[in-house]
TrEMBL record:
Main location, first listed in the record: cytoplasm
Enzyme class, UniProt record, top EC level: oxidoreductase
Matches recorded under InterPro entries: FAD-dep_OxRdtase_2_FAD-bd, FAD/NAD-bd_sf, Fum_R/Succ_DH_flav-like_C_sf, NadB, Succ_DH/fumarate_Rdtase_cat_sf
Stretch forming the signal peptide: none
UniProt catalytic activity: L-aspartate + O2 = iminosuccinate + H2O2
Similarity section: Belongs to the FAD-dependent oxidoreductase 2 family. NadB subfamily.
Listed name of the protein: L-aspartate oxidase
PANTHER family: L-ASPARTATE OXIDASE, L-ASPARTATE OXIDASE, CHLOROPLASTIC
Cofactor: FAD
Organism, scientific name: Dyella solisilvae
Amino acid sequence: MSGELPIVIVGGGVAGLATALAVAPLPVLLLCRNADGGDSASTLAQGGIAAAIGDGDDVAAHVADTLAAGAGHNDLVMVRWLCRNASGAVEWLTSLGVPFDRDSGGQLALGREGGHRAARIVHAGGDASGAAVVRSMHAQARAATHIDWRSDVDVDALLLRDGRVCGVRARDINGRQEEIQAAAVVLATGGMGALFARTSNPPGAIGSGLVLGMAAGAATRDLEFMQFHPTALDVADGHCLPLVTEALRGAGARLRRIDGSPLMDKLHAMGDLAPRDIVARQVWRALRDDGRVWLDTSGVEGDLASRFPTVHASCLAHGIDPRHAPIPVTPAAHFHMGGLSVDLEGRTTVRGLYAVGEVACNGVHGANRLASNSLLEGLLCGRRTGQHLSRLPTTPARGQHQWRQRGESLALPALVELRRSLWDAAGPVRVESTLQHALDGELLRNPTGWQARLAKQLIAAALGRRTSLGSHYRED
């Protein structure tokens, strides 16, 4: 790398990789916890990428479905931009070598998921789309001469000079500390689903980047909106649960109550493929009332093991053969629509600090994300932010410096208690008394760990929004 200060990017999932590739030719230092991005939620994504490229489909329909899923709380400019550029994102990934699934005629095979009126989900490896996308992007980034990598590190502080972020402090797995100057810092650290007792996210998705940005003074937006995926594998005493992709329902699987009756009949015009917030609440209620909800895959045509290898393997690992038995499912914290407030270029309210992907909130998802719009957002917003940064000067900042630290972490017993408290109070169905009880409890009344401080902000936001909207459902 040259003598220029690098753009420091924290996070090695789709959003971080897209940003890093687009910053060229400026130097990039990519800091991540895992060398191959295997700890990112991007890698676990099963659905794919939504793009209106099929016969009879169009961008306007994709826009309408995104707005409907988001309960109209979306930023319309961002939604139109995202949907208009979706086909270009698929073409770009194809040029990188992502092996998207194709039909017998060689055309892209399109699946359908919840909230979509048409089959418009481009996927790879059946239900292994995220892993395929990350692999191809990772290989491209590894070959890029402008990107320097540092893995097995955790960033726990941001450096500010006269109100501008201009560096980070990183610690490796042995506790060694390094202070790194930067032309700008991009947070691409993912969401906070793993702060809940049941989640589809990896263990590291606990809001670390969000708290870093907040410590630096960056404004947040829509913290109360956490999406719960309706169908994670219901494993006893599980925390990070295997996802059971929505594409199964798009292929004919049905949700059923414990007595075998259809769960979603007459509850929504789209039935089992209603938006995620609606289905998740019904699954949550049925679990509360009956103790079990099943996903019946008998209506899925073809070989389930080859069409959905990830789900098939996860079920077998827990003693369930989904070809012959229904799958027990539960809602799980899946995607945080809220985050650090950013503009179209990914700028936060603090100079020199950017955010992309799930840690950011630009309004595109509204109050509830439409299925398979997350990888799409990470790709497009990462590339847009990277292109913006590629035009910036890389000179050192001057003035008095100040470190803004994330702070001490909770001990494991307290963290386990916090997960349960968040699940009970701020899960798919919320009531004021339970939210207030959590806020008044010992963990959140005087929070000592950064995870508790973040949870307190989310619960306070949920209390403040007294009416239901999208994923934020107030039963009272």
